[in-house]
What does this fold into?
Amino acid sequence: MDLISIDSLSDGQIASLIERARHHFAGNRAGRSSQALDGKILFNLFYENSTRTLMSFATAAHRLGMAVVTLPVEASSVKKGETLEDTARTLNAMRPDALVIRHSENGSAAAVALIMDAHVINAGDGTNEHPTQALLDAAALVERLGSLDGVKVAICGDIKHSRVARSNAKLLPRLGAEVRLAGPPELLPDGVIPLSVDEAISGADVVMMLRVQRERLDNELGDAPGEYLGQYGLTAERLASAAPDAWVMHPGPMNRGVEIDGAIADDPKRSLIALQVEMGVAMRMACLELVAGGKD
Ligand code: NCD
It folds into this structure.
């Protein structure tokens, strides 16, 4: 099977991914290892920059006994004009068991999945979806809160360009959460009821801040990044209006002093950022097991 969108997962699959991820989370902490996917090969194909997602898929695969091969896209035949489809056909002929792809075009992961025999996992396609990020966010919240039922989650920032927001807006309500999307009016997609960041954060149990994706912007914000924190970012004053002990999340990479005050991000009593990264490895283990088979 492929993992392209949250929509393709059943409620049962989502519940078992979260349970398996938490099982692996505990196992990784205890230093246990698994050979559930021993002998299988994972290809990593990242056309966009990545630290967390690339490294956590590779780590997850190794923890399951898989071998990982990463295409250095900058040094590949992509630079000689090869199309994505031809690259997929070429890689398919090498018969990997699974392939993780990140690409700047919406729909690219689905297009590659049509060509490949390997199980394809979407690690971010343009502004469309990033399902494993939403799944790891959900698992981190379940780890901390026990359940997402009735939990108010404010997702704030560049919603328009955020595949993380899109996947979370699909996933979290299925687990019982109330999702509020907010940001600068220029960075809210059509069809979203415009909420101010202050309105969204007020009384929220979880505040998820997003990076302003300057690489995808047509200068909608102008040239005044310095004003962003005061107008739309997570400051101590704004966080004070959230529920007492509200948790703060960020998928990374974060711009300190732009969408989030660095001191909040570093506060272990408030920030789930490190937990998100740690759960990321565990959730990707669960996702690799789901698509590529193998138990334990
Ligand atoms: C995000 C992404 O690439 O979609 N990062 C991530 O995977 N943790 C968010 C971003 O780039 O801002």
About this structure: The radius of gyration is 19 Å.
